[in-house]
Design a protein that fits this description.
CATH superfamily of the largest domain: P-loop containing nucleotide triphosphate hydrolases
Oligomer: single chain
Number of helices: 21
GO molecular function, one term: GTPase activity
Strand order of the largest sheet: 3-2-4-1-5-6-7-8
GO cellular component, one term: signal recognition particle, endoplasmic reticulum targeting
Protein name: Signal recognition particle 54 kDa protein
Order of helices and strands: HHHHEHEHEHEHEHEHEEHHHHHHHHHHH
Structural class: alpha/beta
Subunit structure: Component of a signal recognition particle (SRP) complex that consists of a 7SL RNA molecule of 300 nucleotides and six protein subunits: SRP72, SRP68, SRP54, SRP19, SRP14 and SRP9.
CATH architecture of the largest domain: 3-Layer(aba) Sandwich
Number of strands: 8
Shape: elongated
Radius of gyration: 25 Å
Bound molecules: guanosine-5'-diphosphate
Largest sheet: 8 strands, mixed
Helix content: 55-70%
Low-confidence stretches: 436-452
Catalytic activity: GTP + H2O = GDP + phosphate + H(+)
Length: about 450
């Protein structure tokens, strides 16, 4: 099960629970079982899933919840917290400081994406003002140095390696020494991988680590590794002081649940994810927005980041103003439909709000959804300005609905369906009312607000 599906299953389970008239133990158990099944299918380790279920049951004592308490909210919050806990080892990883020499060593199995990720990591920091350098201490895989050299040249990052020297420790030490002299503040050492965990790999890693004394060891893991993730991550952690995890290939049909297991095994946070083969297909990993998206709660901080990134500057104030007012009129819905159909920049932005976009345009059913959106727009073309600009749902009485149906040549049932859709989207939109529009770089405060 890929992550998108996992998110879908979890939010459906929560929705089903929300639809139940009374939330009793049976309903809670059904919901938790459904979520557990989804997590297991996504390769989260069995023990972690079982612990999560036990913890939630401990926190959510249905008998103790006083009447009037919103049980659903409490349960949803408990699930959110437990998933965050799984992904958050409780201590941040070491972060390199600009201007101060720092050695970062990359470890992982062959094919995990280690070499590619070294360059992505260097490139990411270079864009932020660091002076990175790459050292290829992978003498096991023929072509590893060429690959690193090619990537480094493309990104204009200095590199060091050897075609003739077979001792990885010697190359690592020489490389680190050279770049220290050149005042590089982020020296990245790529080490050898093997097809499977074996003694020679771990011994070599230990020696490189002892000789270069890295400030941070990053374990790179392919997200499609499956249930083996926990054991693999643990084996690496036992040999070297893994301090952070990077999960690669999150773009493919990955069962991303392995990431959760790797965090548990290494007690180290996931700091970045790889989302493609290209240098800039690399994202900072933040636990709360990630879990929000999994639970279909929307990634609001990512959403704001995306607005700054893809919406043209001159269109930003207007969109942000509308967002902060929180009045979602039918006209705004019409405009957003236009954007979603064009899948232009704002369409991309709205894809950050899973319920907003995914429900309108579910994956694999894009054609069907496009036809539906077009039908809705035809009906809205038969509306008056007053109807389009009002955010009062009571305005749409029977005679108006009948008139719109006649005018657009669509059945009354469809007009009502469209108005239901409007109400649903308006509810999501209303969450943004009063939103303080942050400037770029002020996202963490926003995300705290939204998750509160
Ligand atoms: P290494 O043996 O661990 O050094 O792995 P490489 O860096 O050579 O990567 C193995 C393959 O995975 C290459 O074809 C990379 O282009 C590909 N790769 C690495 N990271 C990603 C990613 O995030 N997404 C995708 N789709 N491919 C990736």
């Amino acid at each position: 099960m890929v992550l998108g599906e996992l998110g879908g299953t979890i939010s459906r389970a929560l929705q089903q629970m929300s639809n139940a008239t009374i939330i009793d133990e049976k309903v809670l158990n059904e919901c938790l079982n459904e979520i557990s099944r989804a997590l297991l299918q996504s390769d989260v380790q069995f023990k972690l899933v079982r612990d999560m279920q036990t913890n939630i049951k401990k926190i959510v004592n249905l008998d103790d919840l006083a009447v009037g308490h919103n049980k659903r909210k409490i349960i949803q919050q408990a699930i959110f917290n437990e998933l965050c806990k799984m992904l958050d080892p409780g201590k941040p990883s070491f972060t390199p400081k600009k201007g101060k020499t720092c050695v970062v060593m990359f470890v992982g199995l062959q094919g995990s994406g280690k070499t590619t990720t070294c360059t992505k990591y260097a490139y990411y920091h270079q864009k932020k003002g660091w002076k990175p350098a790459l050292v290829c201490a992978d003498t096991f895989r023929a072509g590893a140095f060429d690959q690193l050299k090619q990537n480094a040249t493309k990104a204009k990052i200095p590199f060091y390696g050897s075609y003739t020297e077979s001792d990885p420790v010697k190359i690592a030490v020489e490389g680190v020494e050279r770049f220290k002299k050149e005042n590089c503040d982020l020296i990245i050492v790529d080490t050898s991988g093997r097809h499977k965990q074996e003694a020679a790999l771990f011994e070599e890693m230990r020696q490189v680590s002892e000789a270069t004394k890295p400030d941070l060891v990053i374990f790179v893991m392919d997200s499609s590794i499956g249930q083996a993730a926990f054991d693999q991550a643990q084996a690496f952690k036992q040999s070297v002081a893994v301090g952070a995890v990077i999960v690669t290939k999150m773009d493919g049909h990955a069962k991303g649940g392995g990431a959760l297991s790797a965090v548990a095994a290494t007690k180290s946070p996931v700091i970045f994810i790889g989302t493609g083969e290209h240098m800039d297909e690399f994202e900072v990993f933040d636990v709360k927005p990630f879990v929000s998206r999994l639970l279909g709660m929307g990634d609001l901080s990512g959403f704001m980041d995306k607005i700054h990134e893809v919406v043209p500057m001159d269109q930003q104030p207007e969109l942000l103003q509308k967002l902060s007012e929180g009045n979602f009129t039918l006209r705004i819905m019409y405009e957003q439909f236009q954007n979603i159909l064009k899948m232009g920049p704002i369409g991309q932005v709205f894809s950050m709000l899973p319920r907003f976009s995914a429900e309108l345009m579910p994956k694999g059913r894009e054609k069907e959804s496009q036809a539906k959106i077009k039908r809705y727009m035809t009906m809205m073309d038969s509306m008056t300005n007053e109807e389009l600009d009002s955010s009062n749902p009571k305005l749409m009485n029977d005679s108006r609905i009948l008139r719109i149906a006649r005018g657009s040549g669509r059945p009354v049932r469809e007009v009502m369906e469209m108005l239901e859709e409007y109400k649903r989207l308006a509810k999501i939109w209303s969450k943004m009312k009063g939103l303080k529009i942050p400037k770029k770089g002020e996202m963490s405060a926003l995300s705290r607000n939204m998750n509160a």
